[in-house]
Amino acid sequence: MASLGNNGPVWWDRECDSAGRPIRPDVRAAAQQIWDSACWRVQSLLGDASEAPELMEKVVVQVSRYLDRAGAGLFTQNTTGVLMCAFCRSLRRYAMKLKRLQLVGGSAELAERRTAHNWSALVELWIDLEKLSRNVSHKTRAVLGLRFKGFDWKEIAAVLQMTDTAARTAFWREVRRARLKSLGKDPKDKLQ
Hints:
Elements: E1 2-3, E2 10-11, H1 25-46, H2 52-70, H3 79-100, H4 107-112, H5 119-134, H6 138-148, H7 153-160, H8 164-182
Antiparallel strand pairs: 1-2
Helix pairs in contact: 1-2, 1-3, 2-3, 7-8
């Protein structure tokens, strides 16, 4: 058993993996040597060292199997370096996985969440905006993006170096043309 000081996580150093295969003693000894450093790395990357034992357990088994398959003799390799490299790689993968996940919360938080009353209309609006953005210029897409981010017409006009009325008029003119084009009408015709 290894731990990080008095308050750190505890990792149980086992002789066999979950399938009953023996874990190499040189890998187990290397794991004991790097345990404090591994916990520190998990703490600094994730903000909490509680995941360190599970990561170490998986990496010890992987490295042990790797060295057995490679036919490496006991205590003949730089096992500490191999184990630390594998641990860091596993930690980075785990951190990237956590960044992809967005936790919602417990049952109390789920009860408070509400769905949009008219979610189908919102989906249709987003689809229409996607179609529209394909038929307008880069400048108009940028204006649309700024509007979504909450910029008002005066701020957008300052970026475009024009008056707010001219920016708004040019934007809506191009939106109308793109809409007519998507409907199969000639944009040069007047709106009816």
